[in-house]
Amino acid sequence: MKNYILYALALIVVFTSCSSSKVYFSPNIRKKVENTGTPLSQLQYYIDRDVEISREILKGETKVTSGVVRFENGKDLNIITLKKNTPGVCTQALADKVYISFEVGEGKYLTFGRTKNGNDYDPYRILANSWIGDFGSINYEGKKYFIHSGTEASILIKTSELNKMEVNKRQMKGRVVGAYQNVSTTDSTHH
Q: What is the dihedral of CA 22, 24, 28, 29, to 10 degrees?
């Protein structure tokens, strides 16, 4: 029995050490990253939950570039899904928001940022141009889409990203009078 317990504990340690933990990307985390001089475009981002966006396909429209087409309530809909933990990259960083792209292509990004009532520790959440009830209107691929699920979606980065950032830090040792002094006497401001 004792061996089974030790074996189970060993498995738990192995599994927890292999998994990389993630932290929500917030204004506070962004400040830490920027203080190291690391560009936000060099971080790997992840979506924290499933997101689904859709738009109505207009009559005469011949091309759907991504997603699936579904006929619902008498309308043809173009639906694009984004699954939890899908990796993304930052294509542009603005003052209080970032554009995160989860697929290659012109205009294929979602906007995440600080919400109106958010503080420095609240995660960057998905932003919409406008909200109608629980539906957010966004631009994707140059077209108007609506967010149906995932309206509270946020982005994460691996905690290892924070740990591997180098911060050059040192402490000044101080000086004492009489030790090597290099005083310039040609300073024209002190005549």
A: 40
pLDDT of 14 above 50: no
pLDDT tens for residues 89-138?
999 999 999 999 999 999 999 999 999 888 999 999 999 999 888 889 99
Q: Is the pTM of this model over 0.85?
A: no
Angle, alpha carbons 157-158-159 (nearest 5°): 115
pLDDT in tens, 149-180: 778 999 999 988 777 655 556 778 888 888 66
DSSP state string for 138-164: EEETTEEEEEEE-TT-BEEEEHHHHHH
Report the amino acid identity of residue 112: F
Distance CA 107, CA 84 (A): 21
Residue count of the chain, please give it.
Answer: 191
